[in-house]
Each structure stands twice: as C-alpha cells, then as structure tokens.
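Can you give me the bound-state structure? Components:
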Amino acid sequence: MMVESASETIRSAPSGQNGVGSLSGQTDGSSGGATGTTASGTGRDMTTGADSNGEMSPAELLHFQQQQALQVARQFLLQQASGLSSPGNNDSKQSASAVQVPVSVAMMSPQMLTPQQMQQILSPPQLQALLQQQQALMLQQLQEYYKKQQEQLHLQLLTQQQAGKPQPKEALGNKQLAFQQQLLQMQQLQQQHLLNLQRQGLVSLQPNQASGPLQTLPQAAVCPTDLPQLWKGEGAPGQPAEDSVKQEGLDLTGTAATATSFAAPPKVSPPLSHHTLPNGQPTVLTSRRDSSSHEETPGSHPLYGHGECKWPGCETLCEDLGQFINGDLLKGLAVEGWDNTTSRVQPPAHLLPCHPPQLAKESERLQAMMAHLHMRPSEPKPFSQPVTVSAADSFPDGLVHPPTSAAAPVTPLRPPGLGSASLHGGGPARRRSSDKFCSPISSELAQNHEFYKNADVRPPFTYASLIRQAILETPDRQLTLNEIYNWFTRMFAYFRRNTATWKNAVRHNLSLHKCFVRVENVKGAVWTVDEQEYQKRRPPKMTGSPTLVKNMISGLSYGALNASYQAALAESSFPLLNSPGMLNPGSASSLLPLSHDDVGAPVEPLPSNGSSSPPRLSPPQYSHQVHVKEEPAEAEEDRQPGPPLGAPNPSASGPPEDRDLEEELPGEELS
DNA sequence: TGGCCGATAAACATCT
DNA sequence: GAGATGTTTATCGGCC
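Here's the bound-state model for the whole set.
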C-alpha cells in the first residue's frame, strides 16, 4: 500500500508535467494567435506597426531581435542536437508528453528546436548566457532604434519650428502618443519575454524582485547598454521613486499569477493600459492592432479610457478625449519643461516624459529587468518553473519554493542537459543509460551546482553515483554516513525533504553496492569508494549497442561544443560562467577525475573509442579510467594506492583492495 | 517479454 | 528505550 501510494505520488509528477503541457499548450495557443504564427502573425504585426508610424514598430523590432537571437541559438543547438539526438533517443518517447511548448521561445520561432530541447542540451548557465546575450543584443538595437526614432521626432519638431508653423498640439500629441505607445510596447514585450523565460525556468526571478518593483535595484545595475541613461536623458532628472509606487499590471508577480487568466483580458480597458496587459502576453501584439484601431477610431485613445488617463500611474481625470490629449497628455510636456521655442538638440528622451515619474519608473524597471537577467550565481535563485497546472494552483508565483518548505515535489525544471525524463517527479534517477552516458555527474554538478542547490529538482543521478561523488569530493575520499547525508542536503535542495526516504536509500545503496566500502576509522565507520567495483558494476553490454555508442559519442561531442561555447560565452562576461563552480579550473580539476565516472565506463568497452578522448578530460586521465576495467586486478591494484587526486589515503585506498577480494573473503571488514 | 537496474519501502539487527 | 547505522528482502517501474 505504501509502495503503491508512493508510486502514485511519483507518477503524479509526470502528470504535472502534462499539466505543463496543457497549460503551455493553452498559453501557446493563445500566444499562437499573436506570435505563434511567427511567419504570418509577425508580418501582420509588422504591417500594423508600420502603418502607424511608417517604420518598424518596437514590437516587431523586439520580435525580430528575439527571433534572430533564437535562430542563432537554435542553429548552435542544432549542431549539438545532431550529435545528441540519436535515433533511439528519448525524444520520440518524449513526444507524447512533450506536446507542451513553453511559450516564449516557441512563440518566437516554432521551427527547429523546441525550448525543451534547448533546455535539454544546454545547461542553465548556458541558457542564461544565451538569453542574456540575446537580451543585450536586443536592448542595444532597441536603443539604437529609439535613438533614431527620437532624433527623427526632434528633427521634425525643429523643422516645424523653423518653418514658423508650429505643429498643432494635437498632431504633436499624436506623434508623441505613437512614440509612447511604442515605448510601452517595448516594455511590455520585454516583460512578456521575461515572463516567458521565467515560465520556462530559463530565468529566475527572486521573490523580492518579483513582488517588489524593480526600481529598488541599484541604478548601477549590470547593464550592458547605456539605455537607461538614454532613457533618463536630461528630461528625467532623478524623479523620486515615491511617485512610482503604483505597480499595477507590470508587476511581474502579478503577471505570473495571472498568467492563466490573461486569455480573457478585460474588455473595457484600453489596449495599451497595463491593466489590460497584466502579463505582457502576446496580447500586446494584438493590442497593438487594437491600439491602431483605436487610433483610427475617433473619440478613443489607447491611453484614454473611462474618463481618465490610462497612463500607468497617472489616472488623471479627463472629461473627454480632447481634454485628455490637449490637457493631460500635453501637460506632461509642459511639466517636463519641454519648450517649443527652444531648439534643444538633446537626446529626445524629453519628448517622452508625459509623466516623468512613470517614465523613470519604467526605465528603472527596464534596468531592473536587465539587472535581473544578469543575476549572480551566488544569489539564491528560486528557479522559476514552467507553469504547471498543479504548480500554478499551489504556487501562484510560479516560482520554486524553498525545498525545505515544499510539501510536495515540485520538479519544476528539466535538469539541465538531460532528458525530459529527469523531470519526472520521483523517477528521474531511474533513468540509467542516458543520464549516465550523456551527463557525467561531476561535470554536471560542477556546471549546475547552483541549480541543484537551489532548485527543488531531483538530480538525475543514481544514489550510487551521488554517494560516490560525495565521497570522492572529499580530500580523504571517505565520509561517514552522516557526512554523506549532509552532502546530499547541502548539494541538492531536493534532498532537504523526504529525508527518511532518501536516507534509507542511501543506506541501502551503501550496503548493497560493493563499490562502497565501510571502513572502521578512529572516528567511527566511514564509507569509501572502490572505483574498480564501481566501474565493474557498470553494464558492460553497452559495447554492442549502437544507440548507446552514438549517445556516448554525441555526449562527448557535446562536451566539446559545450566547452567551446562556454568559452565563447565566457567572453561575454557572463557571471555564471565565471563563477567558481562553473569554469573554475580548480574546481574543475578537482572534479575532473570524477567527471568521466559515468562516461568512462560506457566508453571503455569500446576499443575504437579509446582514440577519441573526451574533450573535457585530459587524455591521461581518460585512458586511466579506461584501464580501470580492462586491466587485471593486479594492475589496478598498482593504481589503487593513489587516488586520482588528493593525497592517498591508506584507509581509503586500502579497503577497496580488500573489497576486491571480498567476493572470496567473506570477512570484508578491515577492522 | 524477460532480465537487469535503480528506487522505494520495510523489517530486522546492531550499536551508541 | 530511542535513534542512528547497517543489512537484507521485496516490490515496482524504466529501460534494453
């Protein structure tokens, strides 16, 4: 009964995944209307956007940039996937449950790789790096675009002034309105993009950031561009943030929470109002069209509705549209200090500040968003998750809650670089070949240490692998049971709960597998690893399996690409990649001998593979591991005295030798 | 379909 | 006696 219920609990996780799929499908469907039909839909948006101002609208520019970046990313991923996805890969099996397509990436370019595949292939740091590059590029081009846009506006104004024909206020207001709409759209699209990234777990959002207006972040946030400077310009002189207290639709938490309900946007709110677009979902684009229609409709204005200005945070009461345009809307210019008589050739940001506090707020938001995208690895990152039905119900914020407080497995994310099976709530570790062959535990842990540390995701490794990793990470190559427990809880958020279950499993594995040797120490009993036994227990039948061979080879090539890509990304000063846990040679070297624990064993039975040394490993080490199983016991006993790294520990290296003889010597204990 | 492997649960023994 | 530790068995699911 207990087993049954437990199994049900485990099986409920995949259903949760299906929930993701269904919800994502929903969202995808809704987004498909606006952006899912990238080819045609974008084109429509582009036309509408171009209709209004005769140029590329911010929406389409943003869209275009996203697609460009994703296209590059996908091309890169395709190269990897071509090697990774073997015919027998689990993709086919995933397809049933992988119907879900997370919104943001898929909506931009549904062709080629799916976001899941991206997540499978790329580790979170890589994905984050990719996204950050994408964001940086996007922002840069947006910045250029707005520069041009503002310069054009300014030039037009100057021309009109010099011609002595002051532009009618209404025309000016319309011009400015169009630009403000574009600004809003850009912000909304960015938020939408960010939200979608959060849903996919590609970007984390700290609760404080989510709930708290992003303006609390320092101004000197890691901003790849000087866009905030441009935005602030001289027209937005450090407005007090108190004026921007009202955080309505743009609040990311709210957007996440209302993600499921946005499909039915309020009908009464103006399209560009943040009330209307609580989560910046693709309705932004739809609303763009709506806004165009609004502009065409006399007596209506996207920023005006229900007798008040719909500019976020303004809500100035206006009796009619004319009063709104001539009064509230243009008042912003006067407030800002715009002087039609002066010929200022200043950054045209001052054209915008109809409501300077709001502009400052929005600019701060943007800053915060960009700063958020440059999150530091050291920060506790409650990795966001794809919104599942159950998770969305229980965790409206869409974030992974602290594992210690999590009452139920959340399994928010696909463990990086691994198959979707790793997502199965209780079953990821049940995968055998794929995770072992394609994802060396040590390198995986080295790359995604922060991920597993903070995300309540079950590591896709067997208990034996984890125990071994824990033991081998120590200088002495030995750990007490309690220390192993501590390592588990320290390294994995997942193991901070259900302690009885996994601790029992740990003990079970320690006792069950011969590779774990119990040694009586002065401090008590410690556990060590018998590498030979560990390698022995590896399934040797892989030799004849072309699929596994291909997987393995693909994994190696992936490692090469991964390394090169990480190196390339490292140049972009991506913090995660420079974090000690990522590419730190020291930590990497300490883990290096272990990194092929899962790869080396499968590789080793392949005679021809000996030449193709894994890129991530130094040839000597690799060959060393290869010999572990092939060499006779006496040869490996020659190696035994010295662990791959660290000082040889007599107590650690001794027992394995005894353990090797254990099968013949019943009395296995040394003591 | 069966075997293998890993996860999980549980019972039991031993030790502190 | 309680808890931690260690061993063993049984069952189930995933994968090949």
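A couple of observations. Chain A has a mean pLDDT of 46. The longest strand of chain A covers residues 516-521.
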